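Practice problem 4.
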């Protein structure tokens, strides 16, 4: 079995191995991703269900379960990561002193799958995968590498990983009308993503760092967008719904007239918003018209259970009994961690 297969089978396969193995693994991933150039937009067919995960930040255990879920179907379902695979590794590492953190294993595991099945496992970039373009606070990936490999070797591995991240696409649109990106949308004069082009700083900043206006905190990078702006952007690009990660304030709650859903797939944020380690299925229906058409699952005791998200507009008088108390809970559970 080669290194890519070994890492795809076990996220911690590289742990404790000589640094030459890290380089051999990165060589193999580089070769497999040679055709990928970090375009601003990828188009995904809707002939199979697509499983989408949000920010994972080193929680490779949850990510492994998500990938397994998608791959357990025949044919395999497609899988999309919304970015932020690294940094601020899981707080619940079983042995924090012997196991530095999960960023390395999480990124390696996902890259192994992207190399093994490039048309089926799609990794979009989060702001944490673009620190060369926009500085990210609270980075831990390099620190984790320095604890895992001889410190003087760490930087070249780190640098090679960032080279690979530069090749990941920034956003995707499914054939049935779902827009997928880490944080947000570009400013209005750059809404039309229709023409394939290398991603530039303006578009990248919007996709990776922006937040809906309800969740916006001024981080000195990124923009805020209103419900009307999101609707205009989606219409321009032939979509009806956006699924994103990034700011977890409204995690698990549909917003903007059921056009916008934020999910995270990390134990780091599982108690924020409406709570949970979540995964979204985009079904194979002809047109996704609202977040009600999506299937959301929550990781409970190691398995993905159906999860009823809070919707914006009740479908009937009885469907949505406690919107006011849910709103209050949203505000009181705003995250007190650093920038997502
Ligand atoms: Mn983020």
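Answer key:
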């Amino acid at each position: 079995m080669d290194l890519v297969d070994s890492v795809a089978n076990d996220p911690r396969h590289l742990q404790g191995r000589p640094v030459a193995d890290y380089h051999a693994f990165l060589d193999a991933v580089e070769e497999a991703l040679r055709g990928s150039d970090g375009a601003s937009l990828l188009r995904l067919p809707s002939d199979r269900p697509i499983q989408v995960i949000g920010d994972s930040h080193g929680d490779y255990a949850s990510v492994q379960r998500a990938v397994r879920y998608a791959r357990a179907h025949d044919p395999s379902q497609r899988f999309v990561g919304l970015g932020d695979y690294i940094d601020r590794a899981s707080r619940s590492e079983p042995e924090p002193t012997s196991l530095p953190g999960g960023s390395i294993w999480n990124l390696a595991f996902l890259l192994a799958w992207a190399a093994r099945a490039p048309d089926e496992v799609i990794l979009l970039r989060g702001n944490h995968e673009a620190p060369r373009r926009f500085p990210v606070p609270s980075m831990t990936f390099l620190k984790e590498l320095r604890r895992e490999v001889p410190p003087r070797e760490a930087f070249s591995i780190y640098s090679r990983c960032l080279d690979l991240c530069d090749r990941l696409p920034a956003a995707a649109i499914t054939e049935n009308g779902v827009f997928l990106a880490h944080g947000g949308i570009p400013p209005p004069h750059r809404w039309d993503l229709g023409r394939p082009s290398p991603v530039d700083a303006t578009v990248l900043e919007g996709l990776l760092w922006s937040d809906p206006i309800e969740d916006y905190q001024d981080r000195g990078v990124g923009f805020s967008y209103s419900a009307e702006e999101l609707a205009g952007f989606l219409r321009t690009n032939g979509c009806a719904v956006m699924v994103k990660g990034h700011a977890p304030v409204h995690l698990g709650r549909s917003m903007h007239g059921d056009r916008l859903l934020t999910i995270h797939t990390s134990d780091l944020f599982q108690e924020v918003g409406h709570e949970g380690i979540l995964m979204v299925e985009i079904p194979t229906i002809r047109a996704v018209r609202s977040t009600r058409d999506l299937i959301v699952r929550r990781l409970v005791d190691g398995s993905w259970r159906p999860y009823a998200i809070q919707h914006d507009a009740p479908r009937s008088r009885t469907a949505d009994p406690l919107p006011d108390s849910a709103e209050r809970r949203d505000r009181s559970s705003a995250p007190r961690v650093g920038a997502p």
